[in-house]
Structure formats: structure tokens, C-alpha cells
Amino acid sequence: MDMQPIPAREGNHNMKDYKEVYEQFQWDSVKSQFSWSETGKVNIAYEAIDRHADNPDKKDQTALIYSAPNREEKLTFEDLKFKSNQFANVLKKYNVNKGDRVFLFMHRSPEFYAAFLGILKTGAIAGPLFEAFMEQAVRDRLEDSEASMLVTTPELLDRVPVDELPNLKQIVIVGDVPENGDYIDYYKEMDQASKDFDIEWVDLEDGMLLHYTSGSTGKPKGVYHVHNAMLQHYQTGKWVLDLKEDDTYWCTADPGWVTGTSYGIFAPWLNGVTNVIRGGRFSPDDWYGTLDKYNVTVWYSAPTAFRKLVSAGEEVASKHDLSSLRHVLSVGEPLNPEVITWGTKALNLRIHDTWWMTETGGMMICNYPAMDIRPGSMGKPFPGTEAAIVDNDGNELPPNRMGNLALKKGWPSMMRAVWKNPGKYESYFLGDWYVSGDSAYMDEDGYFWFQGRLDDVINTSGERVGPFEVESKLIEHEAVAEAGVIGKPDPERGEIIKAFITLNDGYEESDELLEDIRQFVKKGLSAHAAPREIEIKDTIPKTRSGKIMRRLLKSWELGLPTGDTSTLEE
Ligand code: WTA
Q1: How far is it, in rounded angstroms, from Cα 483 to Cα 569?
Q2: pTM to 2 decimals?
Q3: How far apart are CA 546 and CA 555, in angstroms?
Q4: Nearest to 200 by CA among 319, 414, 42, 82
Q5: What does the record list as coiled-coil region(s) (predicted)?
Q6: Which residue puts its alpha carbon closest to atom 13 of ligand 1?
Q7: For residue 405, what are the β-bridge partners?
Q8: Rounded to an integer, what distance in angstroms lies between the CA atom of residue 185 and that of residue 295?
Q9: Taking 90 as the threshold, does the pLDDT of residue 564 lie above it?
Q10: Fewer CB atoms inside 10 Å of the end CB: C or N, the chain?
Q11: In terms of Cα–Cα distance, which of 264, 265, 270, 269 is closest to 299?
Q12: Predicted ipTM of the assembly
């Protein structure tokens, strides 16, 4: 679908002219606004919360509106300062130190945000885990990070293989504490803890966050972020989210994924805005209701959610007053031009696509309020970052040539390491270029257009899934001999997970067996990683060195030419 550009709207935007800003911008100008630019010592939780709580004009502003089906709560910046201080004191009481990994495995709640910020205040590294993870997924992440403490709820505790995690010394329970075991009671400890805390001042390059994410090989990797990322969170919040102090902002992402931390925690609070956090499941009525009830002005969501709203129809939308909204953005998957068209009708607004990754820590290629949108394009590089399309040797390609989407390394929120895996970290770089794994091209006017993943990573409803993790789980099932997993294009979910398997002797294909295998992955990893389709084959194509040829599986599935199969095993 070819669509006309959608012109920028008139308005008092934080960034008036992209080109001019792009040419002049220096990160140092952001730094100099913060007091730590003098001392060099910083703490991102202080900058996000305490800086506002210590300002008499700001301290009583609502920082967090928590809204779930059976709970609603508002916390001011001062409330959040005190609660996170209390949690930091609890951590100190139990000997958590700078650099320790403290993981969180729970649903979104005020308790989660107090704990997350409290962890950062001690200088420890926070590791938020998506609440839908099952045992294997939880184990892999806690094992690799060697987390010494976990904050979780009684409901999720049986997915934590406590006895098999020697580094995990302490578990904080948010809720009814089980009697059989040595647990720390969140509410009891918080009640007793002081509201004053001496923040651990750290260096800009000290670690603050680990997000596990999938590649095409191996288990999920710990992407390591440092306090310096705050520069990018703050400035993209200003220029891309266009946040102003009286905004009410809602980011729909879970903090188990990077969007839910960079843009569900840091960007809004660094910019001092009221942040809506919605618990519970997606439903079109509740989502429109949330926009309406809290008069949300800036909304950051994902194509998969927008597509569901499109299919829910106009009638649901028309029941709600959405007139408070002034700015809408999207991330995670290609934003279909059809969805942009829906936005201009249903919301009377443009939807601004943004492109970035767990590894980039913050937005990299974006559509800005003051810029014309070309529907289907991810936009242009954020000021202070350089993007290009490069070939496999790292040479820049001219406009309209497809290649690797790459970024000149060194932006503030770039990952600083892959946890305990320096080889993997280095494999991302070609000379000075960080190579994203996405293919794209740039048009003559500098707009970037996403084309696809270059590796086998699957993007299902905006969630990144590594085929290896799913294959490994599949072959643990007693009936499965071999497995190859691919992403299959799907109009609503972007891609769905499709598994090809071979069966062990003595097993016959049946609907029950396939369902059992599906449930096995779902119970072991998580619902979003369970294959929606499973097909039984006589063999799984492999290279002579034993690597599964997922590309060939995909070509078969899509009825495409199979290309070079010279490395195929006999
Ligand atoms: C994909 C999420 C098309 C891409 C913040 C990237 C996108 C991966 C877009 C990162 C977009 C993200 N258009 N594709 N606007 N944004 N992606 O690490 O393939 O969960 O490499 O980070 O999502 O996913 P991740």
C-alpha cells in the first residue's frame, strides 16, 4: 500500500526542527542540565524520582497512577521516594551491595516500582522478569545472572526452582509468606524500614539493569545497561515522546521487556510526568477506558495492540472520550500503514513509529512530531546517533540499497556488555558499527524502511523469541526426537511460532499428542513461546555440521525457492 506522507501537525513541540537539531546536537548539552555533571557521580533512581520529590513544587504531583481491575492507587513523587528508600533499606539489611543482581519476578504493581527503584538506589543491578515466564525461563535467567536475591509473589514462587539455584540466597515475598521456608516478608519489612536512605552514588558507567533477550543461537543473553543510559531516556522522552511536565503518559509495555523500563519508568519520570501503569490483561474496552479515565495525553504502545483495537471496531472506540490524547507512538514490530490510517480516523492523530532494540537501550530511529511521516517508514535517526545501511564488511551503502541496519557505536544507552559473554558482545560489531540484525534501506531523504530480520529471531506480537530456546524445550518432550522452529507470517501477530518436529519411535501423530507438546512448551517456557502450529516431519533438514536449516524450513512453509542447499546433510 503506497500512502502519501502525513504532514507534521502545528503545535508547541519540544523539538521544532529535526534537521537543525540533528546537525547541532551534542550529548554534553544534556549532561550539563544535571547536577552530577559536576561530580560525575550519579544514580538514575535519584534523577528519576528524588530530584522531583525534593522540589517543593513537584513533590505532590502524582508520579504513578496504578490501575488494575480490582485496585487503583496513586503515588506522588514523594511517596515513591520514600517507598523506594524503604526498600533500599530492606536490601541493605539483608546485605545487598553495589553490583549484586536482584531480580524481580512479579506483575506490575506499586510494590514492583518501589522495589525496582530501591534496587537501583543501592547500586545493585535490577533484573525484571516477565510474569508469564515458566520454570525453565526463570531458571535460565537466574542461573546466568547469578542473582543473589529475588522479589516475587506467592503465586509465582512455584516456578522458581529455589533448590537448584545455589547463588540465590534470599527471596522477598510480596504477599502471604509461605510457612515452610526462609522468606523475607515485603510488607512487614517495609513497615519497619526507615524512609531515609543514603543513596549509593555510582559512576555513569556502573551497571543498573539486565534484560534477557533472544538471539538465533543459544539461550537468552543478559543485555547489560549502565546509569549513563539516562541521558538517552531523558532526551528521547523530550523529543520523541514530546513529554511536558503536565502530561499524563501511558506506556503499555511490561517492565520485563526493555520498553517497559526505558519508557515505562525512566523516560517519563526523568521528565517529571504522571505515569499511568495498567495491570491486567488487554481488552479494547479497558484500554480505551484507561485513556479516557485518566485523560492520557501521550500514549506509547505496539502494533499488535493497535491491530487488536482496529479489529474491535469503531463502536468500542466511540463509547470513550479520547480527546485528551495529543501524541501516539509505536514500537516493537513494523507499523502497518493500515494502522496509521486507522489512527488518523479513530484517534484523529498520527501514530509515530519508533525503532530500537533491547541492546540499544533507547530509541534510535524515530518519527518526530515536527516531521512529516512516510507511512511504513521507521523515521530518521535520533540526534546524536548515526545510522546507516552497511554491507557485510561494514561499508556504507547508498540510498535505496537493502543491507544491515547499523548504528555508529557510542550512544549513551548502548548496552555495555552481554553478561559473562564477551564474545557474543563483540559479535555485534563491525568496526565502529553496531550491526542490529535487521535489514532495511534508507531512501534519498534519509527515511529508514524496515525489511525484516537477518537472523532467525522470531517477533510474535512484538515479543522476541529465540528459536533455539523453543527447540531445546521441544526435544525435552518424550515424544520429540528433533525440532526446528521458525516464525510464520501472520496478519494479526506479525509472526506466529511454527515448529517442525520428528517423533521418537513408538509415537504416532494425533491431535492429543500435538496439544500435549504445545502445553509442555507453554508450561516450561511461557505462553508466548509455545508454537501455535506443530508439523510432524520424517526428518529435520540440517547442515553437515548439524545446524538446523531453519531458512529451508521457512522456504518450505512459504512455498519459496529453497536457494543454496549445498551444505545440506545427506
Ligand atoms: C523489531 C524492542 C520494525 C526489530 C524495543 C528489532 C521493529 C527488534 C521496530 C527488537 C519497528 C522494533 N519496526 N521492527 N519500529 N521496533 N522492531 O529487543 O526486529 O524486544 O531488532 O526491543 O524488534 O526487539 P526488542
Answers
A1: 16
A2: 0.95
A3: 19
A4: 42
A5: none
A6: 334
A7: 389
A8: 36
A9: no
A10: C
A11: 264
A12: 0.99
